[in-house]
Amino acid sequence: MRFGCCGSMISPEKDPSGIEIVETLAELQFDYIELSLSHLTSMDEAAFSKLARRIERSGIACEACNNFVPARIRLTGPDADLGSALEYAKAALDRAGRLGARTIVFGSSGAKNVPAGFPHDQAWRQIVQFLQALGPLAAPYGITIAIEPLNRQESNIVTLAAEGLRLSRDVGHPNIQLLIDFYHLRRENEDFGILLEAKSAIRHVHFAEVRSRIFPIDDDDDYQTFFDYLQKIGYDGRCSIEAYTKNFGSEAPRALAMLKAIASRSKK
Fold first, then answer.
1. Which of 114, 96, 98 is nearest to 150 (CA)?
2. Which residues pair with 6 in a beta bridge?
3. Are 229 and 266 in contact (CB under 8 A)?
4. Residue 98 backbone class (left: φ over 0; alpha: ψ -120 to 50; beta: rest)
5. Which of 8, 130, 145, 200 is deepest in the core (most CB within 10 A)?
6. Nearest-5° angle of CA 34, CA 39, CA 43?
7. Are 37 and 75 in contact (CB under 8 A)?
8. Is there a contact between 226 and 260 (Cβ–Cβ < 8 Å)?
9. ∠ at Cα 47 (44, 53), nearest 5°?
């Protein structure tokens, strides 16, 4: 399994893209960094080129991106505009592709949350339509769009991993798959058995301590159970820490060491 870290939650007010931690992640021997795609897409070309050179010099790659679609791009409701959404997505995919990213996380609650009074089933169809059009755009880059179910405190549609799996099946494109986020899964008290049902649809994993969404530095029985389920389905892909921290320099190496140890125990 490859372990990375989402940079955008470390100092969101100072550095919303997440790039500031890339050199430290390389020094700590993380495998990759996960950056905020909406912020990368909003950069002018000079700033983006500078960021790309910094990543190249760091020694690790941006293998994944989160924060895909910003809230200003409406995906559901009467103001949804598929054409505009896809134009934005094309620009975002180009930026992610230039960095060599292989996974883009589709949580994007602000863009996809269903407006009050709008039919939920119609919003679902709008999301399916967007993702069905997105799959063929992502394929030439070798990028998989990983649907991220978000707990009900953050989103009002696709809140369970089971719903994320159903959405991926409704879309029916090989480049549209599923992300399992330990934090959201446990916030919704969803059974780990959903991993057995999803199996090969799971293409990316996020991880954080459940109570406060902080770096996982204190072991918990649920952590081992979760990784045991990942082992059962043969998952050996990427796992990103997506969490807040008040002391990144201290907590990042502790979290990485603990997750590697837990994953190693699951192999036995």
1. 114
2. 34
3. no
4. alpha
5. 145
6. 120
7. no
8. no
9. 135
112 contacts 128 by C-beta, under 8 angstroms: no
Calculate the alpha carbon distances from 229 to 26, 147, 224, 232 in Å.
28, 19, 9, 5
Identify residue 237 by its one-letter amino acid code.
G
* Strand ranges, E, within the chain: 2-6, 32-36, 61-66, 103-106, 144-147, 176-181, 202-207, 238-241
Average pLDDT over every residue of 91-104 = 98
Q: Is 184 helix (H, G, I), strand (E, B) or coil?
A: helix
- CA–chain centroid gap for 40, Å, is 15
Question: Whole-angstrom Cα distance, residue 96 to residue 195?
Answer: 27
Please give the structure tokens belonging to residue 12: 């969101």
Asked if 3 contacts 26 with a C-beta cutoff of 8 angstroms, the reply is no
- Total Cβ atoms within 10 A of residue 38: 24
Residues contacting residue 120 through CB under 8 Å, at least 6 positions apart: 114, 157
Q: Regarding beta strands 32-36 and 61-66, do their DSSP bridges make them parallel or antiparallel, or are they unpaired? A: parallel
Q: What is the pLDDT of residues 205-237, one digit of tens each?
A: 999 999 999 999 998 899 999 999 999 999 999
Separation in Å, CA 120 to CA 16, 148, 169, 186, 264: 31, 18, 18, 24, 42
Which CA distances in Å does 55 have to 60, 228, 242? 7, 33, 19
**Which residue is associated with the tokens 């799971």?**
202
